[in-house]
Write a structure and sequence with these properties.
It is a single chain. The protein is of the alpha/beta class. It has two domains: 39 residues; 290 residues, Rossmann fold. The chain is 40% helix and 11% strand. The chain has twelve helices and seven strands. The strands form two sheets. Strands 2-1-3-6-7 form a five-stranded parallel sheet, sandwiched between helices. A two-stranded antiparallel ribbon has the order 4-5. Helix 3 packs across helix 12. It is globular and about 75 Å long.
Amino acid sequence: MQETPSISAVTYKHLLIIIISCMLTLGLADLVLASVYNYVWFPSSYTEVRNTFFRRGWEQYTAVNPSPSDNETYLIIVISNSQGFLQESYDGNLTYSHQLQLILQEKLDQPVRVLNWSAPASNAAEQIILGARALSHHPDMILWVTYNTNFVRAQFRSLDFYSTDIARLAYHQSTRQFLSREFLEAHSAYDPLTWLKVNTGFGKFLHIFEKERDLIWTWLPKVQPFGTHLREWDDKAEKYIRAFYETVNQNDHQVQVAFVSMPANQKHYSEEEWAEMTLFPQRVSSIYNSRDNIQIYNATEAIPQNMFYTSTHLKPEGHLMFAEWLYENIFQ
């Protein structure tokens, strides 16, 4: 006699079929949504003071879109993280990049445009890709505002690892031509599966399960617990520091870079962690020693502690103070 499968075996078999079916359905739906997003309108950094789509739309936001007068305009591109975004306020005009533009327009004798490429949750790899993207705009200056954590947590991940769609720019020839082969190989850019994940979201369900804005961040101030863990500085961090400079300073495309160790709130760090934070600009200076076209600025302790929401997020008043600090230390 043929043995009848047990109830438990049949149940597990059906459960497995259901799980696989659900995964395939979600995967197909995610790919469909990914194609839909390709036709969604996204803003340009020439018309908007920040990318309000947060981690999406960076291809369009960073696209070249000059006006007829741009040949006479002093162009600055700010490359930074969530500090430059001011996610706690609806009013993007309060960001330090826009405040700096207003100050420079008043002080200088020529038109000034400051593009705000501050990408929340961005890592060093994404900032390097943005640096390569910036060269197509022929900026007069790249204002690179960053800190220790953007480097020590990066660890040369595959391009599909990062939370923003900035990685897509690495597949644009106008950007890719400025990225070194070493950088592309380290981030698996030549891997077909990486290309598929980056350009479609395949296997990541980013489009189905993408958290809404008010779930991952909010326009309202947050209270952050004290104590922010910092990983130890390592040779990978140094490689990223070198890679940014080498990306934006090539034979036919050399740009003045102002590297700024961004403001931070000391009370959120232990004594040991704060020592790591304050060492960061010194480490960068030693790496860039005697390099042309780059100046190092230390703003780590430039803003009072009461001007912060969190360990690094500034209040609007703090953004204005930082804009004034940038003008006084870099442009005066």
